[in-house]
């Protein structure tokens, strides 16, 4: 009876732990999604109506104001343990797999713990003075080989599905954004929209604060993309290897000089999503953050016009593109003898 009572305590402790670890993230995810939906509903209608207006779009400049980020969405949170709330289909799938795997691990760990404790108590020297000399049990051996193999097989199915999902062929009508990593800032080129390049530098703390954005993640010019539209992300670098990573979009791809890495990205909700260079690339590696702003397509088009670009497939309308710009900022690595370290990001001369 005593042993049974102890088992209960162990089992309930395991359950309590599992509840804390497994259920909280799921709740956080739901809460975050709810917030994002509210934000979408409360912000969009008026603005969307504005930009949908043909004249407003034609005017271009002035139709775009940087969106204010939502606290805790698309950015890390204090004492956060969990994966960031996800805003892409693959991200949601991966998050589900992550939570599912935690439960599988909790169940297996609890099962092994219970077996171990049972053995320790039930077969201790006092209770079991003459130990059994059994050395083989074919049935049990088959079970403990086959069952783990089946568990691994069951895990492999969603796991391989997730890999495949991330490298799905990109539809022809996708909008291309070419991301170039420089020492130490990012450049975003829009070949389908007139081939202009946006140079993105980190804001200093005071400026980030003034704009209501997180420190060391806020940038002067964001990578603006349309929401709900397939984006062909092409990632490369101009000097050393960088890595373009945005946790809340489940996106991470190395930026390698001389290579063009490509992956599809579809963002499900308008918002600002922050990320960082994730490949050690030199002295200011930690100060080249990424800010992705996802806008409804009409607002994205207005932003493109404001940058001097053109709307994809709208050439016949005679919207002139700005001449394709070379990187507006010289990579520090291109300057001979530059130490490169310790200097604050340079103001973008085009703004
Ligand atoms: Cu880098």
UniProtKB/TrEMBL annotation:
GO BP terms, alphabetized: ATP synthesis coupled electron transport
GO molecular-function terms, A-Z: copper ion binding; cytochrome-c oxidase activity; oxidoreductase activity
Signal peptide (UniProt feature, chain positions): 1-28
Statement: the UniProt record of this protein carries the keyword Membrane: yes
Swiss-Prot/TrEMBL catalytic activity: 4 Fe(II)-[cytochrome c] + O2 + 8 H(+)(in) = 4 Fe(III)-[cytochrome c] + 2 H2O + 4 H(+)(out)
Biased composition (Low complexity): 320-342
Task performed by this protein: Subunits I and II form the functional core of the enzyme complex. Electrons originating in cytochrome c are transferred via heme a and Cu(A) to the binuclear center formed by heme a3 and Cu(B).
UniProt enzyme class: translocase
Cross-referenced InterPro entries: CcO_II (IPR045187), CcO_II-like_C (IPR002429), CcO_II_C (IPR034210), Copper_CuA (IPR001505), Cupredoxin (IPR008972), Cyt_c_oxidase_su2 (IPR014222), Cyt_c_oxidase_su2_TM_dom (IPR011759), Cyt_c_oxidase_su2_TM_sf (IPR036257)
Name assigned to this protein: Cytochrome c oxidase subunit 2
Domain Cytochrome oxidase subunit II copper A binding: from-to ranges: 172-306
Family, similarity comment: Belongs to the cytochrome c oxidase subunit 2 family.
Superkingdom to which the source organism belongs: Bacteria
Keywords: Copper, Electron transport, Membrane, Metal-binding, Oxidoreductase, Respiratory chain, Signal, Translocase, Transmembrane, Transmembrane helix, Transport
A GO CC term assigned to this protein in UniProt: plasma membrane
Limits of the Cytochrome oxidase subunit II transmembrane region profile domain: 75-170
Membrane topology: Multi-pass membrane protein
Gene: coxB
E.C. designation(s): 7.1.1.9
Co-factor(s): Cu cation
């Amino acid at each position: 009876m005593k042993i049974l009572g102890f088992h209960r305590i162990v089992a309930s402790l395991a359950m309590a732990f599992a509840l804390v670890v497994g259920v909280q993230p799921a709740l956080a995810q739901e809460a975050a999604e709810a917030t994002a939906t509210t934000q979408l509903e409360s912000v969009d209608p008026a603005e969307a109506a504005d930009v949908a207006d043909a004249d407003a779009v034609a005017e271009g400049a002035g139709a775009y104001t940087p969106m204010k980020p939502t606290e805790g969405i698309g950015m890390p949170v204090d004492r956060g343990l969990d994966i960031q709330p996800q805003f892409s289909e693959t991200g949601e799938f991966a998050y589900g797999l992550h939570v599912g795997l935690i439960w599988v691990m909790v169940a297996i760990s609890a099962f092994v713990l219970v077996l171990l404790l049972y053995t320790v108590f039930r077969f201790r020297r006092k209770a079991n003075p003459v130990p059994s000399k059994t050395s083989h049990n074919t049935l049990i051996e088959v079970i403990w080989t086959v069952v783990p193999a089946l568990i691994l097989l069951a895990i492999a199915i969603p796991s391989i599905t997730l890999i495949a999902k991330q490298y799905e062929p990109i539809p022809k009508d996708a909008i291309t954004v070419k991301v170039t990593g420089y020492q130490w800032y990012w450049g975003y080129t829009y070949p389908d929209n007139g081939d202009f390049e946006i140079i993105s530098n980190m804001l200093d703390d005071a400026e980030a604060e003034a704009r209501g954005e997180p420190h060391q993640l806020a940038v002067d010019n964001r990578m603006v993309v349309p929401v709900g539209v397939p984006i062909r992300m092409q990632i490369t670098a101009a000097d050393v290897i960088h890595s373009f990573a945005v946790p809340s979009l489940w996106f991470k791809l190395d930026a390698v000089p001389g290579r063009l890495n490509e992956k599809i990205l579809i963002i499900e909700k308008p918002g600002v999503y922050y990320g960082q260079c994730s490949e050690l690339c030199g002295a200011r590696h930690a100060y080249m953050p990424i800010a992705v702003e996802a806008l409804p397509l009409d607002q994205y088009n207005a932003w493109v016009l404001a940058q001097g670009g053109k709307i994809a497939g709208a050439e016949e309308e005679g919207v002139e593109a700005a001449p394709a710009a070379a990187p507006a900022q010289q990579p520090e690595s291109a300057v001979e003898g530059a130490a490169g370290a310790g200097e604050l990001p340079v103001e973008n001369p085009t703004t």
